[in-house]
Write a structure and sequence with these properties.
With 231 residues, this protein is mainly beta. The protein contains two helices and twelve strands, in the order αβββββββββββαβ. The longest helix has 14 residues.
Length: 231
């Protein structure tokens, strides 16, 4: 058993994630009182890929690319990607971790011809994250705010929550430092059943760009999915 967490802490963690994603439902039918011995365990890693093998057999609309000498799944602009999982063991939730690369001139929450630049993650058609990203420089006189690590339309500094904020751009700002940001995004989502679909898509807006895929794109460096059970 790994990472035991008191059920009360788990429930509080779930409520926080659900509130950030603006959707709520009952997670567990029984509330744990003080002293409850129930724990959460991450039982089985049911999917992991860094795309180095080139295996996209469980992914629809999967493309392979290279960024900084690393295999990634990408590159996407106004696209949807679905990871299909079958034969899942009994569980109460799924833990999904994504290594996301945000390339070039994402404009965050700005409205108009350049945005907002949204990225969405869903489980079985239920959105668990709808947020924006910005790679814009930020000064006292000019700043294009993003929503992450919150949900849209919250406002945070560009590149807030990034694991790496100074990677070079992929296309429009190729080899210029600071125009790709990398994020590790984890969500623990209530789920039961032996099948699941993890869906990623964007709603990027850049209507004045000659080459929109070059102007703004995203890719994924790794996906990990594990079952979580309550004992």
């Amino acid at each position: 058993m790994k990472n035991p967490i008191a059920l009360w802490d788990l429930s509080r963690h779930f409520r926080t994630k659900l509130l950030q994603s603006a959707w709520m439902y009952v997670i567990f039918p029984v509330l744990c009182i003080s002293g409850c011995q129930s724990t959460m365990s991450e039982d089985i890693q049911v999917y992991v890929s860094d795309f180095a093998s080139g295996d996209l057999s469980q992914i629809s609309n999967g493309n392979l690319g290279i960024f900084q000498d690393k295999s990634v799944m990408g590159f996407y602009h106004n696209d949807t990607v679905t990871l299909s999982l079958e034969g899942l063991p009994a569980h109460d939730a799924l833990r999904i971790t994504v290594e996301l690369y945000v390339h070039d001139s994402w404009d965050g929450n700005v409205t108009g011809v350049g945005g907002p630049d949204l990225w969405v993650m869903a489980l079985d058609d239920t959105e668990v994250l709808r947020t924006t990203f910005s790679n814009s420089p930020c000064t006292s006189s000019y700043c294009l705010y993003q929503s992450f690590p919150g949900s849209h339309p919250s406002f945070n500094q560009p590149k807030s929550g990034a694991t790496s904020a100074n990677l070079p751009g992929r296309c429009q700002y190729q080899n210029v430092a600071g125009w790709t940001s990398m994020y590790h995004i984890t969500r623990i989502i209530p789920h039961r059943g032996n099948r699941a679909s993890v869906i990623f898509w964007d709603e990027i807006k850049q209507t004045n760009a000659r080459n929109q895929l070059c102007d703004e794109s995203w890719s994924i460096g790794q996906i990990t999915v594990s079952t979580v059970s309550i004992q």
